[in-house]
């Protein structure tokens, strides 16, 4: 054997020893059943940093990080893993087992209840986390918009961003509007129904006398539509006392 071959073998042996040493020092966090994809991103970063590339090494590290209930549910695969691609097979199995289904993701997105004490961009990040790798439908941006105070939605109505599919840019613009008018939105944020309030023209558009009348009628318990259109209203939003007051007046006659 030549001197050169000996050097190459020594280098390869040294690299293998370094890899084995790094593998021995890796301590992965316990598997995150409720966040499996971020967990894999986390551990794959550790594998990358420590130069761990062998399939079987990564596979056994993941197996060692599984909790008892996950191990029990994965036993069929663990007892008979494929000859090649053990790590990828286990990763795929765990993602399919614990990630939300499309129906569950849709349910979570449709069950959102406004901003709370978050900024629009923070809400968007939570929504994108729920979405995961799924392809968002055209409704995604509109679900986001429904969580915002009405004035923010109104300001974004003429923007091309909601249809651009650049969701983070949409959230940044919503932040800009929201933060520029923070005090104006305090009342809206405190109202649990702010995201479902009707988008209507300001009362000043009705004229001074009509605006005063509308305000008085709302104080009497009339909804927006009956306050604006009276008996000609084609819609009604509860709670609304318009019909009850009408019956009372009819009974008085």
From TrEMBL:
Q: Where is the DUF7041 domain?
A: 28-110
Protein name as annotated: DUF7041 domain-containing protein
Q: Give the species.
A: Triplophysa rosa (Cave loach)
